[in-house]
Amino acid sequence: MAAPDLRAELDSLLLQLLQDLEELEAKRAALNARVEEGWLSLSQARYAMGAKSVGPLQYASRMEPQVRVCTSEAQDGLQAFWLVRPSAQTPEEVGPREAALRRRKGLTRTPEPESFPALRDPLNWFGILVPHSLRQAQASFREGLQLAADMASLQIRIDWGRSQLRGLQEKLKQLESESA
């Protein structure tokens, strides 16, 4: 590879790296804002409901995660992270139940026991009518989780870009030392 081509590739990689760093900084600021907003909303909910009404004693004994973090590796070796929210029912499970419910004067069937626990909103642990600030806190923390997954993927891309940048700089130094 010639030195001008190498310099052009180095420049484009450096520009991409700077764009990724700028995006990472923006996501960090957004994450900090979401977390701050979530804690503020949570404190408002505690004030509205009472300090002992919103706390660890109200958590369910068997908590199930509402979100899972998945990862995949792309062709170039970079990992990507994203959040998966498992749905309460898959489309295959909805079909037969709907058919049974639509037959009003046919065979009466006993309801099938569910093979998995239905996902419930954790806000219901704190009562039926929870304050809006508690819902805002939940939404803020969910957005923060999404931002954290995006930031992790972006950080891996930045680290990869830095290593590529160092490799290209070494190649350029070798080419310049050979030609001098």
Describe the structure.
Accessory component of the multisubunit proton-transporting vacuolar (V)-ATPase protein pump. Residues 94-114 are annotated as: Disordered. This protein has 180 residues and is mainly alpha-helical. The protein has a domain at 1-56 and 67-84 and 128-175. It is built from 3 helices and 2 strands. The chain has helices at 3-49, 91-102, 132-179, and strands at 68-73, 79-84. A two-stranded antiparallel ribbon has the order 1-2. The protein is elongated and about 75 Å long. Residues 88-100 have low confidence and may be disordered.
The counted number of beta strands is 2
Helix content range: 55-70%
What string gives the helices and strands in order? HEEHH
Radius of gyration, rounded? 26 Å
Strand content: 5-15%
Uncertain stretches of 5 or more adjacent residues: 88-100
Number of helices: 3
Structural class: mainly alpha
Largest sheet: 2 strands, antiparallel
What is the residue-averaged pLDDT?
Answer: 82
Q: Biggest sheet, strands in spatial order?
A: 1-2
Shape: elongated
Q: What is the first-to-last residue Cα distance?
A: 17 Å
Descriptive labels:
about 180 residues, mainly alpha, two-stranded antiparallel ribbon, 2 strands, about 60% helix, about 5% strand, Vma22/CCDC115, coiled coil, lysosome, unfolded protein binding
Write the layout of secondary structure elements.
Layout: H1 3-49, E1 68-73, E2 79-84, H2 91-102, H3 132-179
Antiparallel strand pairs: 1-2
Helix pairs in contact: 1-3
